Amino acid sequence: MKNSNLGKIARYQIIFILLILALAVALVLSINTGSVNMSVNEIVKIIVLKAQEGSVNSNIIWKIRLPRLLAAAILGGALSVSGFLLQTFFRNPIAGPYVLGISSGAKMFVGFTMIVLMNYVSALPATVVVLAAFIGSLISMGFVMAAARKVSDMSMLLLVGVMIGYICSAITDFFINFAQEKEIANLTNWSMGSFSGIGWSDIQVMTVVVFISLFVVMMLSKPIGAYQLGEGYAQSMGINIKLFRLLLVLFSSLLSATVTAFAGPIAFVGIAVPQIAKILMNTSKPIIIIPATFLTGAVFCVFCDLLARTMFAPTELSIGTVTAFFGAPFVIWLLLKKKK
Fold this sequence. Notes:
Layout: H1 2-31, H2 40-48, H3 56-90, H4 102-117, H5 126-150, H6 154-176, H7 181-192, H8 200-219, H9 221-228, H10 231-236, H11 241-263, H12 269-281, H13 286-310, H14 319-339
């Protein structure tokens, strides 16, 4: 028994080290790849020593590449943890913010906010966009939860989520008909999903929101572990089920809303990555899976963003296209495995 526990701990440590190394490699490749070629030595000097300050190469790294790859890592991890919380809430491995229509709800409300407020201000503050996305996420989540009370079959609930997503997309398209050309261009680019155009002020906002949320979710790891064993067991452990479920909804919505606010709707990350983390760790313990899911999501999205930028350069793919290309086959495999 003791040797078995030691083996598990060793496995966790090795996987975490490999994930951190993979993230480091992904970040180095991302910052070293682009239309402007720079040597590794030059990049290190610009980042560490702040050499060539004000030069073209320095501006490319500090104003374009660094914010973009950090956003991909932070938001990729946030979306993955959001998926894990939803899978815990609904007790189903294929629940996720995109499939359940939560990302579409966030997209709808952000689109509405952009169209209304851009008539009065030149640019929306990041906090306003995040708040709008959060409200939209909660609205969609409310409809999904209402459907969950009436529908016991998870496949039907997922179908309801897809329909909610279509409804939200239709409402968003309706808003676009009354938008100005500039607003339409901004909405179209944002709704395609991309980590481009993110600045340091955006990084500050998303860092605060995501890591505070992640800290709270980590504090909930014991109740999540008890909830995984059933509501009856969780209640016997003294957990307030209504409050606990409310917290799951709030933080899963907040994390997915933050991603949608800054990068647009991104498909399949919230479904696939938590399951990949469980396979890697060979456990479902929340205290292990939550940080593993965050790291796996960060690695996944940084590599997907690198492919989106470089596969057909100078043409850039939307991040949702690349994540769907890798995530959709994995979700199909999950469905077949669950059916089997």
